[in-house]
């Protein structure tokens, strides 16, 4: 995998947004897989700036959701569908009928999961999947010891993840659902390009385990090592526990610009 160390979150956002813009210029109806959480926000802001300046038109792109809470009404402000509408689709000018996501309110959750995997396949698969990382190394909501071959399915959140996400629910952990639907690790690995973005010291251990540790389900993001085109973009703080940081800096500094990430 390629590791790109950037000075700060804004620089990381710009690099990832530029990769998305290049993709959409080449393939206007590309499927962009997007993540929630605080980390990807600079990406969406940088891409929206490019849209407003006319540098790229993403209006034909399709936007695919990574994960969703089970049981929150779709119009709940913290359902990931609502979050992505607010933070991604509206600023980018993408219509909701180009949005792909699982139904977190379905009575038959398993059928909803299977329907989502089928919808992703029918759309031609995800071209670029943006990922954040949990403090425990989760991607999407694939908590530690998720099968590396897993498909989209229901998962139970760890208490740590519920604590981490309580900030979106007025700091009240009781409001954070226990169950979620997440693209499986096997599903995520089918995207043509995986881009994991991590910023801040709190992610340094998870980043080091994912990049330099063994491939192991106890650290779900380590599955990126199995992917032929995986890029990890980290700021200095998130990179602070990487033993090979100087090597990663050297290779990126000497990379031809036309290649992108
Ligand atoms: C949630 C999301 C993940 C995200 C993680 C980290 O658990 N399901 O997709 O990567 O939070 O969020 P943040 O970027 O806010 O640290």
TrEMBL record:
It comes from the Bacteria. The keyword Protein transport does not apply. One of its GO terms (biological process) is N-acetylneuraminate catabolic process. The record marks 146, 153, 155-156 as: Part of the allosteric site. GO terms for molecular function: glucosamine-6-phosphate deaminase activity; identical protein binding. InterPro entries: Glc/Gal-6P_isomerase, Glucosamine6P_isomerase, Glucosamine6P_isomerase_CS, NagB/RpiA_transferase-like. It is an enzyme of class 3 (hydrolase). Residues 11-226 form the Glucosamine/galactosamine-6-phosphate isomerase domain. Keywords: Allosteric enzyme, Carbohydrate metabolism, Hydrolase. GO terms for cellular component: cytoplasm. The active site is at 67 (proton acceptor), 136 (for ring-opening step), 138 (proton acceptor), 143 (for ring-opening step). Catalyzes the reversible isomerization-deamination of glucosamine 6-phosphate (GlcN6P) to form fructose 6-phosphate (Fru6P) and ammonium ion. This is Glucosamine-6-phosphate deaminase. The lineage of its organism: Bacteria, Bacillati, Actinomycetota, Actinomycetes, Kitasatosporales.
